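Title: Comparing notes on inverse folding

I've been comparing how different people in this forum approach sequence design from structure. To keep things fair, I'm posting one structure and asking everyone to reply with a full sequence. Here's the target:
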């Protein structure tokens, strides 16, 4: 058994003991409690409205590419750049992320952002997580390239640049000059961002919401348990995408 596999087996045993409410997420809490050192953790930031196979494949690619022990999905509570847009309830988005990731021992979902009051800022999230993680933990914040383009304008961007690595997944045909131009416009604040292509990101949450509202199939775009949850909760039926 490799060291990573041993860590994951210990974590599963600890979770099976039915731990109290998670500080970060069940698997990370168990890894920290078991004394794991030098963890490499990916934080998959997004609204996940709804989660789909593009997100799951991107997380798996990031796990492999950056040699991550765990990827924690962080459904945003009250996304800062979406104050004028309708976003589904945080509990529904959390639950869809949870049921979509539960079969992968390297994936987990944290309530940290949906439980925090006020606007969700990535800086606050990473600080809160870093306080609960061993100081030697390497943190990679992963999200879509379209969101990363605005990184220099995020809350406390200058501090943010110092506390995590950043990785951006791109849809096929992504124009990298967008990011270069955004960086050049904010002289003095250069983020190191690693881009990686994820062909499956041709799937998008916007398209899924639209398809549901039009009564079209979303089979094979997101796991069957998410499709059942959307139907049971009647999400995205109102046509407001
Ligand atoms: P968004 O505008 O909903 O998404 C922008 C694009 O990126 C969409 O094409 C989206 O596709 C894609 N995307 C989003 N998350 C992704 C992921 N994890 N993997 C792959 N593609 C992804 O972006 P958002 O959800 O509001 O923000 C993304 C993350 O950045 C969140 O964690 C948010 O909190 C953070 N953020 C922080 C600040 C701040 O601190 N001030 C500001 C902006 C964003 P789909 O719609 O298919 O997901």
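Reply #1:
Here's my take.
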């Amino acid at each position: 058994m490799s060291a990573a596999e041993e860590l994951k087996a210990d974590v599963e045993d600890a979770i099976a003991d039915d731990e109290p409410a998670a500080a970060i997420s069940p698997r990370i809490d168990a890894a920290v409690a078991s004394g794991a050192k030098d963890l490499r953790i990916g934080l998959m930031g997004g609204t996940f409205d709804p989660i789909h196979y593009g997100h799951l494949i991107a997380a798996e690619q990031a796990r492999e590419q950056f040699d991550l022990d765990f990827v924690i999905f962080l459904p945003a509570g009250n996304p800062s750049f979406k104050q004028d847009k309708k976003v589904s309830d945080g509990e529904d988005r959390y639950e869809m992320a949870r049921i979509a990731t539960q079969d992968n021992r390297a994936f987990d979902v944290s309530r940290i952002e949906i439980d925090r009051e006020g606007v969700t800022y990535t800086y606050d999230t990473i600080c809160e997580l870093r306080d609960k993680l061993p100081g030697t933990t390497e943190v990679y914040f992963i999200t879509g390239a379209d969101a990363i383009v605005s990184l220099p304008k995020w809350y406390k961007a200058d501090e943010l640049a110092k506390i995590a690595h950043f990785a951006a997944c791109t849809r096929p045909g992504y124009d990298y000059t967008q990011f270069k131009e955004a960086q050049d416009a904010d002289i003095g604040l250069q983020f190191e961002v690693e881009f990686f292509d994820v062909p499956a990101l041709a799937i998008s949450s916007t398209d899924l919401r639209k398809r549901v509202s039009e009564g079209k199939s979303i089979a094979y775009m997101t796991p069957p348990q998410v499709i059942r949850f959307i139907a049971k909760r009647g999400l995205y039926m109102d046509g407001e995408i």
